[in-house]
Fold this sequence. Notes:
By secondary structure, the chain is of the alpha/beta class. The chain has one domain (5-38, 48-331): Ribokinase (UDP-N-acetylmuramoyl-L-alanine:D-glutamate ligase), CATH 3.40.1190.20. The chain has ten helices and 14 strands. The chain has helices at residues 5-15, 62-72, 87-98, 141-154, 174-184, 212-219, 229-243, 281-294, 299-313, 325-331, and strands at residues 19-23, 26-35, 51-61, 76-84, 102-109, 117-123, 126-127, 131-133, 160-165, 191-196, 207-211, 246-250, 256-259, 264-267. Helix 2 packs across helix 8 (281-294), helix 4 (141-154) runs parallel beside helix 5 (174-184) and helix 8 runs antiparallel to helix 9 (299-313). It is globular, with a radius of gyration of 20 Å. The model has no long low-confidence stretch (mean pLDDT 93).
Amino acid sequence: MPLQPSKIKEIFQQIKHLRVGVIGDFAVDFYYEINQQTQEFSIETGKEVFWGSKPKTSLGAAGNVVQNLAALGVENLHVFGCVGDDIYGREMQHLFQKLNVDNANLKTIQRSWDTCTYTKPMSVNGEENRLDFGTHNTLSEAVFNEILEAIESALPALNVLIINQQFPNPLLTPQRIQQLNDILSKFPNCLFVADLRAYGLHIKHSILKVNTEELARLVGISTIEEADETACILHAQTLLEKMGGSLVITRGEHGISYISPTETQSIKALQLNTELDTVGAGDTVVAAFSASRGTGASIAQSLEIANLAAAVTVQKLHQTGTATLDEIMNLM
């Protein structure tokens, strides 16, 4: 039976009282419009000058999970990670402050660390070549240990901790995830949800969110079709035999599935007859599922709210969108 609007509102009333932490690769998304055919040429180089306009920033990677949680109404948010002492780092701090996020444990690295940034020029042809900063930073063990200590101190008061790994090595590596696992094992009353682009096999004590491409990579095959729910479930069960825990699988326009050793649940995606932009939709699912489940909502209820939230964000073009309660209710 579909969730009734009154029940969704009840869950959202509880969401705002959650204490949620996010550890991961925080980034800035920097969008601007670019005109590459200006017929203006630099006197110094003789090369054509491009014109930029409408610059705007938003939180990306793990930061997009945070802004999705804030949009859903979570009022008590804590971030654990790193930022550079540079212009994008200052912008990230500003964006967190606008959301009233506790960033006391966002470590500022003074040297040899560029704030992770996705620079996205938008032309008449759509998004042009991205220019990325910081995605191959290297973090010292000393600073990572400080972050672990901060997480261990915070966990007794947290309801949910979300673990995000976006880049190959800046923050979380397989060895460091094992260190994190040791800490998570001490706090069974906290909900842990992980979204790890490369290292999903290493996380324990968590619900792991994957898409079908990531699932295929984790089980060592070439592809799994999003539409093939049976294959998704079978491969998920194979994966869970290796790693334990449970999985949330996002299947694009075919919906979302939840698989654990004891149950399987799926929900179909909403049919949307409009242009879609799926960038960041996985972050919306992680945020909405985690927040809903963190209140004690059932797996089925949490999947439905995540599904509705994702349907809101994919209709927001050229941005890593978020979903609010009002937007979800309007969609219904």
